[in-house]
Amino acid sequence: VNAVVKMIDNKVEEDRETNIEEILDIVKAPDFPTGGLILGTTGCEEAYRTGRGKVRVRAVTNIETLPNGKSQIIVTEIPYMVNKARLIESIADLAKEKRVEGIDDINDYSSDKTGMHIEIDIKRDANAQVVLNKLYSYTQLQSTCGVILLALDDGQPKILTLKEILQKYIDHQCNVIIRRTQFDLKKAQERAHILDGLAKAIDIVDDIIATIRACKGGQAEAKTAIME
Fold first, then answer.
1. According to the model, what pLDDT value does residue 217 have?
2. How far apart are CA 13 and CA 26, in angstroms?
3. Residue 209 in 3-state DSSP?
4. Largest alpha-carbon pair distance within the chain?
5. Between the CA of residue 14 and those of 7, 96, 133, 188, 212, what are the distances in Å?
6. Are residues 132 and 73 in contact, defined by beta-carbon separation less than 8 angstroms?
7. What sign for the dihedral angle of Cα 173, 178, 183, 184?
8. At what angle do helices 128-138 and 84-96 cross, to 10 degrees?
9. pLDDT score for 69
10. Which residues of the chain have pLDDT under 70?
11. pLDDT at residue 227 in the model
């Protein structure tokens, strides 16, 4: 929304187009609904500039030391489009196959409005950071999200840049306002037409009454006579 406002202000106040650099200063990166950390800005900028790009996303984790001396990896956010159940299953398989050593147990606590909570218990003699780095490499705790800004534009599929998408939105809003105003204007003109007729009728009210009395064929005949 701030980027849209910037584009409108530049056009209205300075009569100029907004360049992509100004937009990127406002729109930094996608706001994924499942959270996660975006690694670097190159992928995001490429997607916004060209309509295509790849964004690397990493789960939000924290290593905690328990009173018994063991460590835990706490996962509170995961990359976009990653299935939590499959993620946990893949970690368990890696531990079972000993491809990633040092994992003692995995507990999945139900996700709710406060977020998700996955606990990965680490064995006493293992280094939690080393285990976590391997999980980033072997599982979807770190993944790549492909971005294609594909949209239907006048019925035709097109890949658009971020600036083009925002401009299309502004154009749409302008069209909505114009059509709404034209609709209101039409209603007002129709009402004005009726009021003009009533004003004329009042000026010749005696003639209208006489016309109605002269009509013996009921309302239909009277209506036609008055209109004439």
1. 80
2. 19
3. helix
4. 111
5. 10, 64, 50, 35, 63
6. yes
7. positive
8. 120
9. 85
10. 111-112
11. 85
Amino acid at 207: D
90-92-95-100 Cα dihedral, nearest 10 degrees: 40
Q: Residues 137, 139, 142, 148: is their CA dihedral positive or negative? A: positive
SS3 102: coil
Residue 43: closest CA among 55, 32, 25, 31: 55
User: Rounded distance, CA 147 to CA 46, Å?
Assistant: 9
> What confidence score (pLDDT) does residue 218 get?
83
pTM, rounded to two decimals: 0.72
Which residues neighbour 84 within 8 Å (Cβ) at sequence distance 6 or greater? 78, 108, 111, 116, 118
With H, G, I as helix, E, B as strand and everything else as coil, classify residue 57. Answer: strand
Neighbouring CB atoms inside 10 A of 30's CB total 17
- Token pair in block for residue 147: 């971005």
CA 63/CA 117 separation, integer angstroms: 13
Q: CB-based contacts of 183: which residues, under 8 Å, 6+ apart?
A: none
In degrees, rounded to 5, the angle at the alpha carbon of residue 51 between the alpha carbons of residues 48 and 53 is: 80
- What per-residue confidence (pLDDT) applies to 226? 86
Write the single-letter amino acid at 4.
V
